Amino acid sequence: MSGNQKKVLYWAPRVTCLVFAAFLSLFAMDVFGEGLGFWRTLLALFMHLIPVFVVLLILALAWRWEWIGAVFLTVLGCLQMWLMLFRHMPWGSWAFIAGPLWVLAALFLVNWLKRKELHAGR
Fold first, then answer.
1. Cα dihedral sign for 91, 77, 79, 52?
2. Helix, strand, or coil here: 64?
3. With bands split at pLDDT 50, 70 and 90, how would you rate the model's confidence at 85?
């Protein structure tokens, strides 16, 4: 594996996870149109951003221990799918959240399996 391939493989799940967290945070913006007061809007924004904080916490742990990202992002994807099934949502709606979580989990799994190669030059 060349040096550039190692860099791409190492950084792909990390950067993609940050982009996914930014995507998730967009769903919190609906609290600003609710007409709540300042403190209630702040509380609602915090509550809407809890999933983003969870993803960022997993990323922080997975940055060092890739297996954590592989396991917990898979669990989050399954949890999201399970919750959507109880709400009788169409399959396409869960694919926008659970699908990227599973792709990220797979990327972290590949990182974990190739960790000796990726960390050899560090």
1. negative
2. coil
3. confident
DSSP string, 35-52: ---HHHHHHHHHHHTHHH
Alpha helices in the chain (DSSP H): 3-25, 38-48, 50-62, 66-86, 91-113, 115-118
- State the helix-helix crossing angle for 91-113 and 66-86, rounded to 10 degrees: 170
Average pLDDT over residues 92-97: 77
Residues in the chain: 122
Give the Cα separation of 99 and 36 in Å (integer): 33
Instruction: Note down the domain range covering 47.
Output: 3-118
Q: Which of 3, 45, 37, 36 is nearest to 11 (CA)?
A: 3
What pTM was computed for the model?
0.86
Domain count, the chain: 1
Chain position carrying tokens 């007061």: 37
